[in-house]
Specification:
Length: 150
């Protein structure tokens, strides 16, 4: 026997569902950063990935995957176009040959230097738009990393 779901349940989900609202906001914010970074040939995801490599010591693939909340397979797929452009290198870990280290190249550093002012201007505009809503980052980070071991 078929049972229909009342429309008020649909409205409840539309109005209350954090996942829906976060996904919709994330797509809109991502589009804004993608548009801003397009002239230098980066997406917001590529910018974040390259920025995560800007460290004194080359990070492992696993540590970057954890930081970006990506599985290793997805991260590896996202590395390939940046590798082809010469923005990063992937090398075996000297201490554990099974592991991989992600190394930001000079070309990768150069594109980040160009991207940071664009990111800042876009972020300043976004912060101004959010305004009264306040700083969402602490709560979003707590939700993203709940139960994740460091």
């Amino acid at each position: 026997m078929r049972q229909d779901l009342p429309i008020d349940v649909t409205h409840e989900v539309r109005d209350r569902c954090l996942c829906l609202h976060l996904q919709r906001a994330a797509r809109a914010v991502a589009r804004r950063f993608d548009d801003a970074l397009r002239d230098i040939g980066l997406s917001h995801g590529q910018y974040s990935l390259l920025m995560s490599l800007n460290r004194p010591d080359a990070p492992t693939l696993g540590s970057v995957a954890r930081l970006l909340a990506m599985d290793r397979t997805t991260l590896t797929a996202n590395l390939k176009p940046l590798q082809r452009r010469g923005l990063l290198r992937v090398e075996p870990d000297a201490q554990d040959r099974r592991g991989r280290r992600l190394i930001l190249t000079d070309a990768g550093r150069d594109i980040l230097v160009r991207a940071v002012p664009i990111w800042r201007a876009t972020h300043d505009a976004l912060d101004a738009d959010i305004g009264a809503a306040g700083d969402l980052r602490p709560g979003l980070n707590a939700a993203a990393f709940a139960g994740v071991q460091s």
